[in-house]
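Help needed: design a sequence for this.
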């Protein structure tokens, strides 16, 4: 059972590496569209110059941190924070706006805003579980 508890943070890390790299690469490949969508979103339109670059860089940075055992905890914290921010923003948009463009890229772009909220909430929960298990079981034996 302890082995399974060590594997879960690793598996969740792989999931987030794939998710963040896929999302970032999709945004890079269609950067002009991504930047236009960011500028069309409420509350973010003043940030449309630096925010697209920042989001892409943060996604790649967190993915990189998740690839190594020594930085996995930091990467899982980053995953939690980033997904919490995305989830909060989606919840805010759902409560205040309708028919907004999605700036996610790729397959994720096909989701409705409600589906994004469920998906992001699941990702937040996954990151909490993986972080807790990683903190508990990744320490070297004393």
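Sure. Designed sequence:
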């Amino acid at each position: 059972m302890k082995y399974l508890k060590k594997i879960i943070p690793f598996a969740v890390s792989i999931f987030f590496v794939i998710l963040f790299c896929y999302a970032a690469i999709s945004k890079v490949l269609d950067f002009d569209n991504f930047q236009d969508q960011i500028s069309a979103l409420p509350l973010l339109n003043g940030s449309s110059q630096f925010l697209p670059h920042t989001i892409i860089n943060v996604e790649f940075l967190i993915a990189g941190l998740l690839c190594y055992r020594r930085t996995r905890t930091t990467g899982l914290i980053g995953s939690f924070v980033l997904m919490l921010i995305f989830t909060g923003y989606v919840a805010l948009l759902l409560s205040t706006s309708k028919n907004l463009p999605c700036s996610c890229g790729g397959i994720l772009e096909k989701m409705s805003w409600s589906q994004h909220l469920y998906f992001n909430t699941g990702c937040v929960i996954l990151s909490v579980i993986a972080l807790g298990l990683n903190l508990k079981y990744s320490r070297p034996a004393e």
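Residues 38 and 129 are 30 Å apart (CA to CA).
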